[in-house]
Each structure stands twice: as C-alpha cells, then as structure tokens.
Design a protein that fits this description.
single chain; about 210 residues; alpha+beta; 5 helices
Length: about 210
C-alpha cells in the first residue's frame, strides 16, 4: 500500500467495491499490514506521442503462487516535475484466462505510437466527449471499435478484436448506457482516457458499474 500510494497523483481515483473514490482518501490512510502476496505486472501498454499520458494493463494475483485471477488497468500521467504518477487504477476484476504473466525481463507489447501530428489535447477530448454523448450504447459504440481492440468484462474471457470484442462490448446487457465523468487527453491529442458510469437492467433490477 505505501508504494501504491507513493506513485498516485493527487487527483488519482480508484474503482472498487466502494465505487469511484479518491485514491488518497481510500488507500493512503491505511496502515501497512505487511501483506506482500498482491502481485501485478504489465502485459500491454501504450504512451502518447507527447510523452505525457500512458496506460498499463495486465494480470494480477493475490496468492504466494502468483496465480493470475484478475485484469488491472492503470492510467499514468507525467507530472510538472517530470515524474510519473497514476491517475486511475481499476479494471473489470475477475476474468477468464487473465494471464499469463510475462517472464522477467520480457518486452511488454506496446500500442503503436502515433508518429504524425494529430492536433491538440483539448480538441481530442472535445471530439471524444462528443462521440460519447451521441454513441452511449454498445450498438452505437461498435462502429468505433478498431481491429484488435481490447474489451474486458468481469467473468468473461479476454477479447482482442473481432466478434469476441463485439460480444464483450454488449455484456452483460445490450442496453448499457454510459455517462462520462472524467476525460483526460495527451497534449498531442493522440490518446484520450474517459472514465464514467455504466447503467443497465439485469435480472429485474438496475445495475451500475464504471
């Protein structure tokens, strides 16, 4: 926990059983209990052309044997002093086949970096917010999936493009609606992160996630 908090930004946020909470409020006041079985490592990552926004994702485990059980997703932002701090940490939780961990020293597969100028971060954030305002259901978002898109859902297998990603997009309901709460864009305008609420109807009750 101390190391986890050390690298959190002042406005870092977490998603967990308590919903969406400030990281410092949720985690950084907790004492170090000495537990060291939590282990995670990146299996895929990306960084903006401007070098100021990035993400890592991969499996995580909770036992000494390092048995992968969940998929995490962390968004990182470069700070004014040049250091990196995470602004969001969450993920779909338990998924089918979340691993394996890459071997020690293995190169982490990377999202290709955009090499040409793409505009400003403000413009990119505005464009993505406009898309989400008008395409806030799985059916409407499907046209924005690129080849090889990663789509994770709790209780489902990892999906990297094609029909599997489209199927995961509509799980657990084809009637999911989205409400953006936070948008962050790189200065180069080539990477945008959005965070928000998801609402759907399942088994006779309304459900909410992020």
């Amino acid at each position: 926990i101390p190391a986890f908090c050390e690298y959190s930004a002042a406005d870092g946020q977490l998603v967990g059983r308590a919903g969406l909470t400030p990281a410092h409020e949720r985690m950084c006041g907790l004492p170090d209990d000495g537990e060291r079985n939590l282990y995670w490592a990146p299996a895929y990552a990306g960084i903006a052309r401007s070098g100021d926004l990035g993400f890592t994702t991969g499996p995580a485990s909770f036992d000494a044997a390092r048995t992968p059980t969940i998929q995490y997703f962390t968004v990182w932002r470069r700070q004014p002093d040049g250091s990196w701090r995470w602004i969001f940490d969450g993920g779909p939780g338990g998924i089918v086949r979340p691993g394996p961990f890459l071997g020690e020293g293995a190169d982490v597969p990377m999202l290709p970096v955009v090499t040409a100028a793409t505009g400003s971060g403000a413009s990119a954030a505005s464009q993505v917010n406009s898309i989400e305002a008008n395409a806030n259901t799985p059916a409407e978002l499907r046209s924005y999936l690129v080849a090889g898109a990663h789509v994770y859902r709790a209780g489902r297998a990892r999906a990297y493009g094609g029909a599997e990603s489209e199927a995961n997009l509509s799980y657990p309901s084809a009637d999911i609606s989205y409400q953006p709460r936070r948008t962050e864009a790189s200065a180069a305008g080539d990477m945008v992160f959005t965070l928000g609420e998801a609402h759907w109807w399942q088994e006779g009750a309304t459900k909410q996630g992020f």
